[in-house]
């Protein structure tokens, strides 16, 4: 059995065209000229800015709590159909609401959808709230407060996402992350995806991140790689997404081999699977089919994922038992 733990996936990147069409009809949202498939799905690799533009096509649906609840529930159902055992989703509520109360309403709806999905499938879930690089300090601190108010109720972590090239500075977000850390939330940060390697170090030192989202350019600097290994920093790899954002030119040039040689722990995610057309099981297959991982390395990935996940104790025990069973059958 393959234990699939998805630790980097965005709720906003999980609105499939059929759901978009149905929600648009209910809300009287105009259909884009070439249809929802063309508006949402990437047809070929491009840049991070292009990639995020496709994700943003679904933003109008996230203004409605009922739509958010449906999208979250469907995300869990689709994860179950993909064979996943745990799904950690990220959600940026400040993109969709104008005040803290409105953010809270949308987050509560997402949590309800995740609970409904878990009840139907048995897939465990966690919600990581994402602050965004281009938002003001006050806005991101409000997101942190919304997260903290729901710690222990399904909110498990705090993240920083957005266009790293256009908004590289991390200093404005220090207080928001301090608020989240004080409540015991797990800390991750998109870094060194489009920017140089040292931005990963900055995310760790300034924000307290223990996990780095994507981090493809960490491999450009051996000193940064060694530092990440020494500090026990975990890199969340999303290979197909990295090609589509232009972080790497081709799958065969993904830095996972350099990370393995450096002793950097990795976990796997599908990032925005509707945009790329590939879910976690597809990404997992790349490990053996493209990158040449052994069966033992694949099981060790599951162990690393369980260790790094922002999990409730009971879920950690359950997933660890699954990984142990998988190891015993190699």
Task: Offer a few descriptive terms.
single chain, alpha/beta, TIM Barrel, eight-stranded parallel sheet, 330 residues, globular
Low-confidence parts:
none
Number of strands: 8
CATH fold-level assignment: TIM Barrel
The proportion of residues in beta strands is 5-15%
| Outline type | globular
Radius of gyration: 18 Å
Taking the alpha carbons of the first and last residues, their distance comes to 10 Å
Order of neighbouring strands in the sheet with most strands: 1-2-3-4-5-6-7-8
Specify the biggest β-sheet.
8 strands, parallel
Global mean pLDDT:
96
Percentage of helical residues? 40-55%
**What sequence of helices (H) and strands (E) makes up the elements?**
EHHHHEHEHEHEHEHEHHEHHHH
Number of domains: 1
- Per CATH, which architecture? Alpha-Beta Barrel
Structural features, described:
The protein is α/β, with parallel strands linked by helices and 330 residues long. It has a single domain, classed as Alpha-Beta Barrel (TIM Barrel). The chain has 15 helices and eight strands. It has helices at residues 17-27, 35-40, 48-56, 65-81, 100-121, 137-149, 174-182, 198-207, 222-231, 239-244, 256-262, 273-276, 280-289, 295-308, 313-328; strands at 5-10, 86-91, 124-132, 155-161, 186-191, 211-214, 234-237, 266-268. An eight-stranded parallel sheet has the order 1-2-3-4-5-6-7-8. The longest helix is centred in the middle third of the chain and has 22 residues, at 100-121. The chain is globular and about 50 Å long.
């Amino acid at each position: 059995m393959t234990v699939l733990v998805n630790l980097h996936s965005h709720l906003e990147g999980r609105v499939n065209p059929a759901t978009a069409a149905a929600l648009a009809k209910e809300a009287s949202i105009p259909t884009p000229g070439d249809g929802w498939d063309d508006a949402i799905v990437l047809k070929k690799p491009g840049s991070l800015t292009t990639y995020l533009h496709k994700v943003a096509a679904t933003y109008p649906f996230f203004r409605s709590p009922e739509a958010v609840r449906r999208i979250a529930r469907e995300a869990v159902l689709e994860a179950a159909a993909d064979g996943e055992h745990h799904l950690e989703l990220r959600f940026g509520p400040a993109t969709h609401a104008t005040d803290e109360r409105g953010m809270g309403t949308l987050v509560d709806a997402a949590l309800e959808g995740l609970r409904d999905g878990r009840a139907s499938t048995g897939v465990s879930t966690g919600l990581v709230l994402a602050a965004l690089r281009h938002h003001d300090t006050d806005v991101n601190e409000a997101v942190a407060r919304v997260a903290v108010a729901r710690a222990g109720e399904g909110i498990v972590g705090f993240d920083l996402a957005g266009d790293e090239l256009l908004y590289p500075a991390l200093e404005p977000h220090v207080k928001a992350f301090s608020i989240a850390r004080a409540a015991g939330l797990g800390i991750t940060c998109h870094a060194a995806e489009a920017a140089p390697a040292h931005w990963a170090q900055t995310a760790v030192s300034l924000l307290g991140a223990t996990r780095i989202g994507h981090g493809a350019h960490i491999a450009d600097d051996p000193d940064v790689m060694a530092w990440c290994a020494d500090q026990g920093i975990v890199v969340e790899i999303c290979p197909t997404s990295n090609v589509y954002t232009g972080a790497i030119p081709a799958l065969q040039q993904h830095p996972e081999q350099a990370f393995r040689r450096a002793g950097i722990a990795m976990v796997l995610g599908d990032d925005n699977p509707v945009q790329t057309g590939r879910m976690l099981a597809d990404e997992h297959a790349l490990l053996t089919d493209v990158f040449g991982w052994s069966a033992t390395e694949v099981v060790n990935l599951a162990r690393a994922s369980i260790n790094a996940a922002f999990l409730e104790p009971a879920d950690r025990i359950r997933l660890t038992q699954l990984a142990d069973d998988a190891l015993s059958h190699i």
